[in-house]
Amino acid sequence: MPLPLRTLPAAALVCAGVLLSGCAGGTGPQPSPSTAAAERVPDGGKNAGGGRSAPEPRAQTLQAREIPGLGPRTRAAIPAGTRQALVVSGKGADANTSTAVLYERDAATGWSPASARWPAHNALRGWTDDHRQGDLRSPIGVYGLSDAGGLLPDPGTELPYDQESLFTISGRGFEGEPLEGSFDHVVAVDYNREPGTSPLDPARPLGDDKGGGIWIHVDHGGPTQGCVSLERDRMKELLRALDPGLRPIVVMGPAEVLAR
């Protein structure tokens, strides 16, 4: 996206046993209380008829849910303390359309979706694991989401939010669509930047050649220069959902790479 000139869930099912008693009008003989109690007491592992009693049911350990579509290498890159992840899954290595889903992790049950599946755009030429300035590809990887900002006022996010007139943009995109309003709200992706600063901060710790200014911002209806874009209402929804206490991240790349 051009920059300002300054720069799951399956729930565990627990089956309840149902005790069936005889019909109210039954006339058959009923055991005495003492006999009934005796029949319920194990006798050396045997029941009243001399056979073995049924074994006690074993407790089952449920495996915590993982984020669908992520392979072991991608999951290993997610920090242990992270409990919120926006997964942006590209439709192909060279595709500029993708989908995004926000997930949250519960300590007991694992990851589950916290949003619907949102349509998104990424860079014009798709994705790369070696992003360079001007390559028109979005960087693949797992990155923090630390800071937000925009031309318009804070819509209610808990992230630090920098409202600034320098988030203004004009002109047209790759498909002739107007770019105005694309930076009304943004979340900085912590790729080659200093977390804890405004998304407008020009610092590039990896060097200028590695690019920077990778944001999640308002979609303008076409591919970006390197950012990820979401529809305006979805962008506001994301900002309101992100919680610094959950150490939010973005996991982004083509689906076939994220599955590794």
From TrEMBL:
Residues 176-251 form the L,D-TPase catalytic domain. It holds the Pfam family YkuD. The keyword Ligase does not apply. Coiled coil: none annotated. Residues 26-58 are annotated as: Disordered. GO terms for molecular function: transferase activity. InterPro entries: LD_TPept_cat_dom (IPR005490). PROSITE patterns: PROKAR_LIPOPROTEIN. Keywords: Signal. The keyword Glycoprotein does not apply. CDD domains: YkuD_like. Residues 1-26 form the signal peptide. This is L,D-transpeptidase family protein. It comes from Streptomyces genisteinicus.
